[in-house]
Amino acid sequence: MERLHPEDRLIVALDMDKLEEAVRLVKRLVPIGVRHFKIGLNLFTRAGPAAVEEVHKNSGRVFLDLKFHDIPSTVAKAVRAATRLGVWMMNVHIQGGSAMMRSALSAAQEETQRASQKTPLLIGVTVLTSMAEKDLLDLGLRKTLKDQVLYLAKLAKSAGLSGIVASAQEAKVIRWTCGEDFLIVTPGIRPGSKGDPFAPGFQAGKDDQQRTATPSEAIRAGADYIVIGRPILEASDPAQVAREVLQECAQVQ
Ligand code: C5P
Predict the structure, then answer these.
(1) How far is the CA of 50 from the centre of ligand 1 (A)?
(2) Is the pTM of this model over 0.90?
């Protein structure tokens, strides 16, 4: 795979309630080099496709993080609709199964062929980064967390998906097993404290994210993209935090 530019590695999660707030942030971050923005359940439920259009209008690319998980025909229809919005990346839950993933992929490919546009990257969610070992037991799963993530990553690869969402803690083994061209997207990123980019995540364990890492830890472990929401959104100067993250990404290249 082509080497990514440091600015391309950061995906900022637009997890706010109001579209105007999201647009304001996009307008502040695009000029400093941020290109990728994630629209998830909250903003999409509130603002709908207009949120995608606004990011596009401001020269950003959209990762539509709606984590589709339903029967194959329903997911295929949703993927068609998302593809029509022209998003750069979208995702499904791998636990929806191989047939569901294959339907999703065919839907994206057919829809883009019809419109002669580029097929969006379709990636699969392994185990949410908010979950720890005990949460798998709670669900009745007997595998260790790492084994479960790896098992799901391999399933996504054999269904033809472009990559997966996992925590940085599993990135190394996924990269090793699934190869260089398989995309690894890692949320749960907690930048180090100011002045020491390699310090352990300062917010680790302080919110719902369990499997955290700093940007440099994630990239060194093999992540292609890092997803950051609250550490940027809740900062007094979001652009400054984003700038520091981009610098940190450039240092580990
Ligand atoms: O605020 P924070 O940096 O924790 O945001 C992480 C973002 O990544 C959230 O929008 C969350 O929905 C998303 N995400 C995640 N874990 C996954 C997939 C997506 O945290 N496995």
Answers:
(1) 21
(2) yes
Cα of 209 vs centre of ligand 1, distance in Å, is 8
Residue 150 to residue 186: CA distance in whole angstroms: 14
Residue ranges of domains in the chain, CATH in brackets: 6-251 (3.20.20.70)
CA distance 102 to 155: 11
Active-site residue identified among 67, 77, 146, 172? 67
pLDDT more than 90, % of the chain:
88
Note whether 64 and 80 are within 8 A (CB): no
> Cα 96 to chain center, whole Å?
18
Lowest-pLDDT range, 21-35, 145-159, 205-219, 221-235?
A: 205-219
Closest ligand 1 atom number to CA of residue 231: 3
> 129 CA to middle of ligand 1, Å?
7
Place of tokens 């990514």: 4
If you search the block for the tokens 């999660």, which residue do you land on?
Answer: 13
Smallest CA separation from ligand 1 atom 2, residue: 229
What would the pLDDT profile of 15-31 be if each residue is shown by its tens digit? 999 999 999 999 999 99
Which residue's CA is the nearest one to ligand 1's atom 11?
187
Position 108 pLDDT exceeds 70: yes
Is residue 77 annotated as a catalytic residue, yes or no? Answer: no
